[in-house]
Amino acid sequence: MQDQDIISVTTEIVGDIALVCVDNPPVNALSVHVRRGIQDAVAEINAAQSAKVIVLYAAGRTFIAGADITEFGKPPMPPALPDLLNEMEQSKIPVVCVLHGTALGGGLEVALASHARVGIKGLRIGLPEVLIGLLPGAGGTQRVPRLAGIPVALDMSLSGRQVAAKEALGMGLLDALEDGEPRDVALRAGQDALDGKIKTRRTDLIDTTPDDAALEEARKMVARKFPNLVSPQRCIEAIAASTGPISEGLKIERKAFMDCLDTPQRAGLIHAFFGERAVANIPEKKATPRDINAVGVIGGGTMGSGIATSALMSGLSVTLVEVKEDALERGIATITKNLEGGVKRGKLSADQRDQMLAQLTGATDLAALSDVDLVIEAVFEQMEIKKEIFTKLDAVCKKGAILASNTSYLDINEIAAQTSRPEDVIGLHFFSPAHIMKLLEIVVGEKTAPEVVASGFALAKRLKKIGVRAGVCDGFIGNRILGHYSKTASYLVLDGATPQQVDDALEAFGFAMGPHKVGDLAGLDIGWMTRKRKAATRSAEERYAGAVADRICENGWYGRKTGRGYYVYDEGDMHPNAEVAKIIDEERAEAGVTPRSFTDEEIVDRYMTAMISEAARVVEDGIALRPVDVDVVFLSGYGFPRFRGGPLHYADTIGAKELVRRIETYAKEDAHYWQVPEILRKMAETGKSFDDINKGG
After folding, report:
1. Engineering a disulfide at 558: which of 161, 432, 525, 544 sits with its beta carbon 3.0 to 4.6 angstroms away?
2. Annotated active-site positions, please?
3. For residue 536, what is the DSSP state?
4. What is the pLDDT of residues 504-513, one digit of tens each?
């Protein structure tokens, strides 16, 4: 029987139609009481023969949005979803599903096991399990091929994308598309099924058309794009089994699902999924955000034009300010090109592009920002320039306007001190390209008002970015940690590895690009500028890591933009720069280093241990609120492999004791660089994990 204290499924008999309504706010997740409710309703209607058709629909803003993800990893509670759906599919009384809002994962699988599916306009369906390291585990890999074919099943389950109702109708996953409220549509759908206007049939009795070519192409794609991931491979295996008896295919699917459920990848992807939601839990969350409709952007370079593009795409009006008219024209041209790229990719219509450009104004005087709600400064990374701008903004901008700097490293408190309203000053650190990258570090100064912080998070949401709260220090969360662990890559090269070996080892670990390729892509001159800025503060005990990179920059080789850096970029061909090898040899000789060999495993261990060490200190210093905030920064802005969950989630898979042992071993070579963070030492002593800290332990 259904839990007595939780009634999430109700039955209503209207003539020959049994309406079964799921009502489990907020998204009608398939919790155990929902599964039991559906099971009981279908069984009781069949036993009583109280209707000639069953119509399953949902109350609220959506159909069944998916499985109850909080049940993963807990002891199973019957009925298991696959068992429920098999029973529903075999119902003597036909079951019609009426879908609205979203029907994802298990929610879609419920519909697939019914005998007909009616969508309400605005519906989106999908099989997103691959995004959390799983595959459809309740018949999705068996029933989609039977209804829509193997290519559709491969596309949906390997991409995790959401499919609009009209496309789903064309695929054959919906039998009809209607307008109206769910209960009204359910009544009409039930009558249409009784009248034969909607054909009902059991999906398990439909044969799948074999398509070996599509399966082979999918295998090649997965090997190329997702070589480290388990679930896409197992998904293809399950879909391939759909050409046989469904009973056998379901067994293969279930085994593949359970195998994926037990992998560290699933744990990492689930951590990433929940982490993106956890970072919104900030001390200022109850503050009321200020209204932001008009935005000023100072600087029309790559970053400024990207920020302006992002704002325009979110419906904001933008005033772009540059010093000179020609620079302003280049900035507007870049924004136009960015939006045109959206049209070419099908993300925007030409009319939308034109409407956005109509919201863009250019100016060469800061006075043009007198009435904007938010100013984002995105000029050269030099403190004196930023101080001068903020002094002028203080005089020009209206009361209540938020003054933000896009600085990557510099002290927000020092910038805010140039104004008479430091409470209105905040850091909004975008990542390049700003109209594409998901991360927005929201840097909170000592005097930043709570409502200004809340406004930063509201802006991130509007821009469809993930906002992460950061404290003030050199580099904030991401770049501070990057500044530390990137030295390890340099030390590895000085001590005997090649840049290409380091890159290859870390790409095999799961990074999209190794650190030297990333440096070439971002521009090696950026790091060079930072090293010059910090030269005066460098400890005499520190082993200098920038000698090779400095020499490369001195030659005018800044990476891809100059055609040469650690690699040579020649008409699409990329290969190691032989001149860099000579520089490395000379720097080793200058430092008296006898090169030694490193295994790929040693490279990864040192690189990751350095990253984890500084990440731990960032948490210890309160720059990040929690370990998960660090993880989300690196997943969203630094290309950290999502399936590993982030650097501090990955640290938990290694264990604090092992990390301390590694650091103490490496410290025998360089005691200045390799130091055990106090937080990590205490964790090793107490047995705590970073996840315990996330939970408040």
Report:
1. 525
2. 109, 129
3. G
4. 999 999 998 9
- What percent of the chain has pLDDT above 90? 91
Distance CA 564, CA 459 (A): 38
Q: Which two tokens stand for residue 33?
A: 């009481």
CA separation for the pair 388, 162 (Å, rounded):
47
DSSP 463: T
Distances (CA, A) of 498 to 524, 548, 683: 17, 12, 35
Both 622 and 659 in one domain: the answer is: yes
User: Is residue 665 assigned to a domain?
Assistant: yes
Are 257 and 320 found together in one domain? no
Domain count, the chain: 3
d(CA 489, CA 487): 5
Q: Where does a domain end: 458, 476, 494?
A: 476
Q: Which two tokens stand for residue 638?
A: 């630094």
Sequence-distant (6+) residues with CB within 8 A of 392 are 366
Per-residue confidence at 570, pLDDT binned at 50, 70, 90? confident
Tokens of 313: 């795409």
Please list, in sequence order, all residues whose beta carbon lies within 8 angstroms of the beta carbon of residue 347, skipping any fewer than 6 positions away.
Answer: none
- β-pair partners for 355: none
Domain boundary (460, 476, 492) is at: 476
Summarised one tens digit per residue, pLDDT across range 59-112 is 999 999 888 877 766 788 899 999 999 999 999 999 999 999 999 999 999 999
Query: Which residues touch 367 (CB under 8 Å, ≥6 apart)?
Result: 396
What's the CA gap between 665 and 14, in Å, rounded? 75
Tracing tokens 């370079």 back to the chain, one arrives at 301
**Average pLDDT in the 215-229 region?**
94
